[in-house]
Amino acid sequence: MTRPLAGQVALVTGASRGLGRATALELASVGAHVIVTARSTRGHSTVPNLPQTTVDDTADAIRAAGGGATPLRCDHTDPAQVESVVRHIAGQHGRLDLLVNNAWGAHDRAAGGGAVGEVWDEPPEQLRDMLLAGAYSDSLTSLLALKYVMGTQGHGLIVSTTWHTDEPPGWLPYEVSKAAKNRLVYALGHKLQGKGIAVVGVAPGWMRTELMLQHHSEAELAGQTETPHYAARGVVALAADPEVGRHTGRILDVGELADLYGFTDLDGTRPQWYADQRRRRESS
């Protein structure tokens, strides 16, 4: 197997499960040393009903496959904790080639994890918490990574996992929080022009994550979903692209990346969920 990221250092936030875990595994498989962060650590998981979904488990899986990983507990909404992680990277490695902003939360405040009643019935804390665990977390981690490591090295890539906002709009706090994440990608990419650091948003489709599999049957998900490794391979392709700067400031659907770089999901397919939805909207 080729190792295009050999010698590089990556930080993946929210790496205890789902897309963060898959991204860390895929990056390590092509040579990167991956610092994996999350709030869930062994014996102190935020979702104790899901076994082996802590940052320590992710690091163990990487090492078992022959890769290099460092697990660190971090709440990416806490400036002191984020600064500690970034200073650790600067001190131990002296470089940070890739930051993947994947930490996310606040889905579970509303009953059922979605819209409740009329729009004015939304708990006022819902949007605040989604912004905190989304755009604020991304911004905080990106700016501290730039300040202490990436800003002076003359190269690097910042990826934020996100979603295209829907037309017509879906759940209000979710739409607003994702729009904030997407605008951050555009604005930060603009501010970093000329510094050799690209900023790109990666938008996966409906993923078969551990939480998704807990709440939906395999039959219900069949033919409608992709594995987290599909988007993770998109991140790897971006990180290995010497011309990644041409994408800076953009939100790219995973299907677009698969067409551009030629990777597939674990089953060899290239799901195109967003493109299919867009075509249906345009024809309606």
Task: Describe the protein's architecture and organization.
By secondary structure, the chain is of the alpha/beta class. It has a single domain (9-283), classed as Rossmann fold. 43% of the residues lie in helices and 13% in strands. The chain contains 10 helices and 7 strands. The chain has helices spanning 18-29, 55-64, 79-92, 124-148, 172-191, 210-215, 218-221, 228-239, 254-261, 273-283; strands spanning 9-12, 33-38, 68-73, 98-101, 156-161, 197-203, 251-253. It has a 7-stranded parallel sheet with strand order 3-2-1-4-5-6-7, with helices on both faces. Helix 2 links the parallel strand 2 (33-38) and strand 3 (68-73). The longest helix is centred in the middle third of the chain and has 25 residues, at 124-148. It starts with 8 loop residues before the first strand and ends with a helix. The model has no long low-confidence stretch (mean pLDDT 89).
CATH structural class: Alpha Beta
Major sheet summary line: 7 strands, parallel
| Overall body shape | globular
**How many domains is the backbone divided into?**
1
Q: Outline the low-pLDDT stretches.
A: none
Strand content: 5-15%
CATH topology: Rossmann fold
